[in-house]
Every structure is written in C-alpha cells, then in structure tokens.
Amino acid sequence: MKEHIISLLRYNDTANHTLLHTILQLPHRDEALRLFSHLISAQDKWMNRITNAAPDSQYQWYGPVYDADRIGGEWERSINAWKELISDTGETDLRQYIYFHRPADGRKMMLPLADLFLQINYHSMHHRAQINKLISAQGLPLPATDFIFTVLREAPAPDSV
Fold first, then answer.
1. Does the N-terminal or the C-terminal CB of the chain have fewer CB atoms within 10 Å?
2. Smallest Cα–Cα separation from 124: which of 1, 56, 21, 38?
3. d(Cα 115, Cα 94) in Å, to the nearest integer?
4. DSSP, residue by residue, 80-118
5. 2-152 classified as CATH 3.40.50.720
6. What is the full DSSP assignment across 8-75?
7. At what angle do helices 71-88 and 2-23 cross, to 10 degrees?
8. Terminal CA-to-CA distance of the chain, rounded, Å?
9. Contacts with 132 (C-beta within 8 Å, 6 or more apart), sequence order
10. Which segments constitute the DinB-like domain (predicted)?
C-alpha cells in the first residue's frame, strides 16, 4: 500500500506542476489561482489534523489565495510535507486512525491515514478538472495531467520479449 501511495503522490505532484505551468499562462487566472490555493490550504489543514501542531480553527479550507510569484513555492512546501510523512510512515501505520473534531458540529471523527493520503490525490483531481474548464474557456490547450501519462511506457520490441 505504501508504494502505491508514494506513486500517487508523485503523480499528483507532477500533474499539479503541469497544471500550474498552464495556469500561469492564463490571461485571467484569478479563479484558477484561488482553486489551486485551495488545494494547498486543504492539504495543510489535513496535515495539521495529523500533527496537531496548531488548533484546527487556525486552518481554513479556503485559506490565502497565493499570487503567481508565490504559489509554486507554497505548493512545494505543502506537497513535500506529505511526501516526507509517507516516507516516515511504516506500512502498518497507514492503518492507524487520525482523530479530529468536525467544526460544524463538534463531533469527533476518525479516518485511516491511508485514506487521507488518497483524499489528497482525489481532491486534486476534482479541482484540476474545474481549473481545466477555466483553461479551456480561455482558449489555451489543456495540459496532459491524466494518471496514465505517468505510467504508460513503450513496450519492448516483440523479438526482445
């Protein structure tokens, strides 16, 4: 499971770098920057729920909107924390539960750490699709961010198999 999660985090990082490159070419990029900044804020909020470094209320799902000069560095900071966490996490630790109180009603919630890693990836996919609609509406070609592009390889010649 750990190797699969590492693969997905690498894919997510690559896809988001590719997307960010296109976002920065947009003539009207405010909404795309807002959505991409939200990915960073959400990752940071979930990471804080794991580490309990600060009160949960200090992190918002839609936190600061980073400008074009800063967003790449903020993405690196955020995704690198997740890469470091998976690197330092043992296979059995992935089944451990993360506990937090849901702000809406104060109820104590729990989920396995492995599922949280998956959430980070799936959440990015959702918002990449939204950002792609913005890119398409502005006439730029859509970046190739599908998972298949990170795993597809040319097969060896028939006589070498």
1. C
2. 38
3. 8
4. HHHHHHHHH--TGGGGSEEEEE-TTT--EEEEEHHHHHH
5. no
6. HHHHHHHHHHHHHHHHTT-SS-HHHHHHHHHHHHHHHHHHHHHH--S-GGG--SS-PPPPTTTHHHHH
7. 180
8. 29
9. 19, 142, 143, 145
10. 36-131
137-159 burial by CB neighbour count: b if 16+ within 10 A, else e? eeeeeebebeeeeeeeeeeeeee
What percentage of residues in the chain have a pLDDT greater than 90?
88
Instruction: Give the residue extent of every domain in the chain.
Output: 2-152
Helix (H, G, I), strand (E, B), or coil: what is residue 121?
Answer: helix
Read off the pLDDT of residues 83-128 as tens digits, 9 standing for 90 and up.
999 999 999 999 999 999 988 899 999 999 999 999 999 999 999 9
